[in-house]
Amino acid sequence: MKRAYHAGIVIGSVSAAAAALTAAAPAQAARAAGWQIMATVHYGIGANASGYSAVVAPGKNDAWVFGGTNPGGTSAPAAEHWGGSRWRPAPLPPGLGGFIIAASASSATNIWAVGSGYALRWNGVKWAVAKTWKQPGELTSVAAISPANVWVFGGSAFTGETSPGAWHYNGHEWIRVTGIASGIYRSSAISRHNIWAVTASQWGGSVVHYNGHTWQPVRSAASALGHAPARRCPGRVRQQRVGIRKNATIWDHRQPRRHHEAIADTG
Fold this sequence. Notes:
The chain is mainly β. Helices cover 3% and strands 46% of the residues. It folds into 2 domains: 129 residues, no CATH class; 135 residues, no CATH class.
């Protein structure tokens, strides 16, 4: 049975710049340390679940949150924009379904978002469909380095199902990238020759790195990451999470506390 949730909690991929969202709080609350709930919105009919799944903040007074109306059922993507004084719903291209799962921004006029078989781009004026995929599965990550350098990933992650794989946009065409990149689930780009990502599957995961030419596994991170299989049972998805951090020259393992486990009810 689906539960109706308000989109007051951001889940999924989160940009480190998301702290800029605190600009929406009253002055007194903004001075207080810690995270603040900045918006609570319910999309769709009351019986639907709804939520946010991605956030990007190109500037102090410029932030976007993305999600959808009904995870696990018939749904439509949603986007909200913070312009410095209030949150406003942003119109998306018609005919899209599912959730927006991940987003990335290289500037306020180059924001990308991916969801159920599509990539969207904001050019500073409006959202447009940049590409659609016929392959089944979800796109799970996007890394926007510039308007002419964008990576999109759709690793099969925990289900083992067919997925769109990895794609690179060079400003003129989309090129499918095979090999280890096809299993990437989440990514983060520092520059065009310094992109980090994690792969994920039913059997475990790995850290990989792009040096501007090729994707390579980061073997020094393997021992810290270990294997963290996702356990799936009917009506409920439970993801066991393992955190690792690179500290100058070594990787160390960080196990989240039990109450940080992500549990999602899909039935």
